[in-house]
Every structure is written in structure tokens, then in C-alpha cells.
Specification:
The protein is mainly alpha-helical. The chain is built from 15 helices and 2 strands.
Length: about 350
Amino acid sequence: MKYFIAIISVVFFLSSCSKDTEIISNTTTATINEYAPVNPPGWPAPVYNFSNNDVTYDKFMLGRHLFYEPMLSEDTTIACGNCHQQYFAFTNGPDHNVSHGVHDLLGKRNSPALFNLNWHTLYMWDGAVNNLEVQVLAPLANPLELNLSLSNALNRLSKSTKYKNLFKKAFGDTVVDSQRFLKAIAQFMGLLVSYNSKYDKVKRGEDNFSASEKNGYDVYKIQCQYCHVEPLFSDYSFKNKGLPINLYQDSGRYRVTGNPSDQFKFKVPSLRNLAFTVPYMHDGRFVTLDNVLTFFTTGVANTPNLDPFMAIPHTVSVQQKSDLLAFLNTLNDYKFVTDPRFKEIH
């Protein structure tokens, strides 16, 4: 745990020291390239591809401001960025197992990591949202999160000189409407692409695994790949992994579909950036990766709709666990969590 805290301290220091990008027009080649959508070589085609949301620097910057704007909460105290902090790979961080909303109200789920969102088909732990452009509406309306209607949010923005100027830079005039609002935030979130871990560098021929990491890669292929498929390290499906039912009595995907076969199923998270996304699982019940691996080998509960793969006994030796942890550490993208394009802006 001390090692983890040290990592986060370094990440926070690097992030806070990086110079912020000025709000300038999207005119230079360097700026255009830096703020263009990313589709890394060897990755599948993204589901959300910006075909109806032309990316520009100024639209991205508007979205960035909105992501960190506390005006978009009922009591003007929190923003999306409070529950999705960059140096924790855009999760709520290790201090909270579930999200904290307006009036310091507690949510019922751990804030999911925000990266590589263009490859998701559904969003949220239960898949309640099916398009990146409307994803923000869920936390905006949630009484335990931002608790603000879209109309009130737009009304507040339209009265702000700052946002009139930002909307004019992005769209050519000061009109603040729902379509522009949603597309701008989608541009910010859609550019949160994590693809510069050691694993990625190995795949690009820029680095090599150590012996332990290579052995851990082999363990991953046997024990983890069924759910956590390369290169995104999730298939983004919904599975019941046998977690004992928590105090929230959260039925997961069933709350959306009403289908009994979806009871206690939650979205499979990515294995990328695990050094930063503690605590783990939809309710943040595990605080170390050791806890997670112990659960998968000895703690799976025979709950309704248990995934067949989880019903199979999974055993790993002490050495295999050590090697697997070494491999999982190759999935941490330090460049992503310190990238100045994504840091909080005022």
C-alpha cells in the first residue's frame, strides 16, 4: 500500500507541475494532431468514431472546461472531475469506495474509470447509457451525483460570460444548447485514450517484457483473458463474477433490462491502469490487487446467474500470482495520468 501511495504522489506532482495549454485557435499542425481522435495500430475500430462530431481544439477545450465545471451540480460544489480524477485514471480515487455527490451524499457504486470510451458499446456499470454523447446526462440527473436538470445546466451556462466566449470559439456564436453541450463533453471524454503503457510499447516493438512479466502474460492468457480481452483488456460484456451481494443490494444490469438472467451482472472493467484505479469492483470493496486475486481463487460465491467460467475452480501458485501482478503492472499508463491536455482547468 505504501508503494501505491508513493506512485500516486509522484503522479500528482508531475501533473501539478505540467504547464497548462492556453486557449488558442485550432490553427497549427501540431495542435491539430495533438487533439485528433486516436485509433492505435492493432486495435479494433472504435464504436464511437466522431463521424457526427467533428473534433476541433476549441470544442475539446470547451468540453474540458465543462468536465471540471462545478456549476453543473445542484449546489455548485462538484464537477464530473471530482469523481473522475486524472491521476487516478479518471476514477474517484482510493479515499472513497463509492462516489460522493452533492451535499456529500454517497452513491452506490465506485466511479468507473474513464479511458478508451470510444470502444464501449454501453456505458455505466449496468449499461444504462448507449451513446457517449449522452453519457453525461446520467450523472447530471442522478440525485446522488450532480442532481441538476439539463435545462438548468444550460441556463446557467448561457448566463456565464466565460461560457459564452467558449461556445463562440467552439461553434462560431454564443448559443448554448443541448447538442453543443453534449458533443463538446463527448470530445473531451473521447480523447481520453490510454495506449502508452509498457505493454503497448512491447507490442509496438519499443520495449521487452522481463522474464516475470512474460510468465505473468502466460498466466493472464489462461486465467483472465476470458473476460479481459486484449488489447483493451475487457470485452465490455456484463457478467456475474460471484461477488457476495453487498449492503446496497445492487442487482446490476437487471435494473436496466428487467431480465432475471441479468441479475447481479456488471460490466467487465479493463485491466489497464490498475495501479491508479483502486479500489476495485463496482462497489470498491477490494483495496489491493492481492484482495482481488484471492477472491477469484477462493472467494467466489454461488450467486444467481454466476458466469460459468467463474464456477470453475481457479488456482494459481505463489509464483504465478507474483508473475501475474508483474504483468498487470505493464498495463499502467503513466503518460496518460499525467497528460497536460486532460488535467483540471479553471
